[in-house]
Amino acid sequence: MTRRFSESENHVTPKSMFLNRRQIMQGAGALAMTSMISPLVAAKTANAPNWLNRKINSTVYRSVDTDDSVTDAYDTQRYNNFYEFGTGKDDPVKNAGDFNPYPWEISVSGLCDKPGVLSLEDLVTSSQTEERIYRLRCVEAWSMVVPWTGIQLSSLLRRFQPNSKAKYVAFETIVRKEEMPGQRDRFSFIEWPYVEGLRMDEAFHPLAFLAIGMYGEALPVQNGAPIRLVVPWKYGFKSIKSIVGIRFVDQQPPTTWNLAAPREYGFYSNVNPGRSHPRWSQATERRFGADGKIDRIPTQLFNGYSEVAGLYKDMDLKLFY
Ligand SMILES: Nc1nc2c(c(=O)[nH]1)N[C@H]1C(S)=C(S)[C@@H](COP(=O)(O)O)O[C@H]1N2
Ligand SMILES: [Mo]
């Protein structure tokens, strides 16, 4: 497999590239305009520690694999799915303020030779970080283009030395009812913790990524602070947020949306314009652009990441959805 990333530049995308319509307007002190576009919900970036900011700011590897223009950060940080904070698209940003992601630890267990608990600080300071610009395609047929900062998932997993019995990797999100109002909802159709999983070869694919930042800054809470998965060829719900647990297992692990509605959401959930969701077509998507506008565009198989096709060559993607 050829690596499709070119580590072409010596620097991450300058923050100025992400300055957008709204920020520029606000920066220009267009007070009247600002009040006109209210209600503005502040995008809260939790108080990130210095070691994290320093690492993100000194990230020098940049991997660009798309010419698509980067989505306005205003949208990526205010239009979210993070049911722990509520089911509305702006519930996560509104409710993010109660959640404190620092300090943070990830426990790695199961079929591996070196199980253990790793602090986020140790992980981040000892890893090579890079910036990757990926398309994110939600199963709800909207999509964004996001510059993530983070580390390749395989480099984290390798540290724990999974053994040959490990066939899948299971992930889980933190449970903190005091800080996550969605977890206190008695009528929630999701059981906590939110869980996800990948087959071993998917998890070790070079495109599978763990993000600790976006747009050159630490991840905001609503986007999965302090660390979340990004699997760009799969529907967004596979990209589990605020991860505290990773386990190597020999059976396909349960996954949240498959448990909630198995006919609608499968384990694999590869982006596939040829397989409709039972309630809507997946042939096209609403793309949030750089300018806050939304365009209707065709959806691509594997979200355009055709290099993953070999992972599924012997599988009928209609059956293994
Ligand atoms: N723990 C957890 N992770 C989650 C979700 C969630 O509700 N809880 N929503 C998923 C869905 S459906 C999508 S589309 C993406 C959205 O990521 P974004 O809000 O950063 O765009 O997060 C995914 N990860
Ligand atoms: Mo989603």
Layout of helices and strands:
Elements (H helix, E strand, L loop, with lengths): L5 E4 L5 H4 L2 H7 L3 H6 L13 H8 L3 E4 L8 H4 L14 H5 L9 E6 L5 E4 H7 L3 E8 L4 E11 H7 L8 E6 L21 E5 H4 L5 E6 L2 E2 L9 E3 L12 E7 L6 H5 L23 E5 L5 E5 L23
Parallel strand pairs: 2-5, 3-12, 6-13
Antiparallel strand pairs: 1-2, 3-4, 5-6, 6-9, 7-8, 7-12, 9-10, 9-11, 13-14
Plain-language structure description:
Helix content is 18%, strand content 24%. The protein has 321 residues and is an alpha+beta fold. A hairpin with a 4-residue loop joins strand 5 (130-137) and strand 6. The longest helix has 8 residues, at 50-57. It is globular and about 45 Å long. The ligand Nc1nc2c(c(=O)[nH]1)N[C@H]1C(S)=C(S)[C@@H](COP(=O)(O)O)O[C@H]1N2 binds next to loops. Molybdenum atom is lined by residues 81, 138-140, 236-237.
Q: What hetero molecules are bound to the protein chains?
A: the ligand Nc1nc2c(c(=O)[nH]1)N[C@H]1C(S)=C(S)[C@@H](COP(=O)(O)O)O[C@H]1N2, molybdenum atom
Number of strands: 14
The low-confidence runs, each spanning 5 or more residues with pLDDT under 50, are: 1-16, 19-41
Topology pattern, helix = H, strand = E: EHHHHEHHEEHEEHEEHEEEEHEE
Q: What's the main sheet like?
A: 9 strands, mixed
Whole-number average pLDDT?
88
CATH 2nd-level architecture = Alpha-Beta Complex
Kindly name the structural category.
alpha+beta
Measured as a percent range, the helix fraction is 10-25%
Radius of gyration based on Cα positions: 19 Å
Strand composition percent = 15-25%
